[in-house]
């Protein structure tokens, strides 16, 4: 909806900006729409019923659509990190000045009420050339842009996109100057989680490695470890529930327990991501031991206990899907073992009069025996 169709916007100079303009021209699904208002004041927006929501600069929600409308603004670097900016928003800030503060040229395009493209920094040409290029040298003022460049490449590399050489040089400069270390872990995780859900998550980590940021932000994955970690991402089925969770799990499943903890702590990964990584590590160990173990039934029981399958049976399906990609025969054996062992319930043993430690020991013995017999006849 442009200004000409909306009484709340009558008389205002309004432009659609950013991702919606970019993705529409890429033929990519357009998500949220962001708008910039030029030449207006905070009071004018309030008088039209817009609700202020911005803490650091004037952003408003439309009274009917609830889309975001921001007053045109400029930024000046005052401190370290991605929050160390002084914002200036006033009616005298032009659209071109607002677009100049954006990260990449493909994000610095706007569309007026008549649908005409406003493109002062060559975003359309870079879209056609499939380039992620910085808008201005001010790129180096915000370390978050290193992560955003990597994440956008994870989204668009399969379309032929690359990071411009001069932009990658500025990313390396940001890292070398120490700015990247000022990013808070929560913000690093936000970008990482988004990248894990993109079409080519490998591109995210490869880009961070190429500019030196990975060694600062996620040391356990850096250097020679990364190639082995990324090779595992291909085995995560795209139709798996929460693929981002299991991609993260596979990235770190081969790390020692201390390194897994260090990696998750470095980015403050949520508990479900940490748990998935631990489960994936146990599953990897199971695969290795099953190749040499005298008692596969015993190894399978230890695995089921380790992932807490008896209380959390929902954990089985995604782990079996991961195993099936590389070891389908083992996945079939595990599915059969689980189906039979889970039918042996504590109540039957209680009815036999077993209590306390004897109950737990006999329950485990019968389940393992059932698994052993099933594997022998499979």
UniProtKB/TrEMBL annotation:
Residues 160-223 form the tRNA nucleotidyltransferase/poly(A) polymerase RNA and SrmB- binding domain. Keywords: ATP-binding, Magnesium, Metal-binding, Nucleotide-binding, Nucleotidyltransferase, RNA repair, RNA-binding, Transferase, tRNA processing. Belongs to the tRNA nucleotidyltransferase/poly(A) polymerase family. PANTHER family: MULTIFUNCTIONAL CCA PROTEIN. It comes from the Bacteria. Residues 14-133 form the Poly A polymerase head domain. It comes from Salinicola endophyticus. Its cofactor is Mg(2+). This is Polynucleotide adenylyltransferase. GO terms for molecular function: nucleotidyltransferase activity. It holds the Pfam family PolyA_pol_RNAbd.
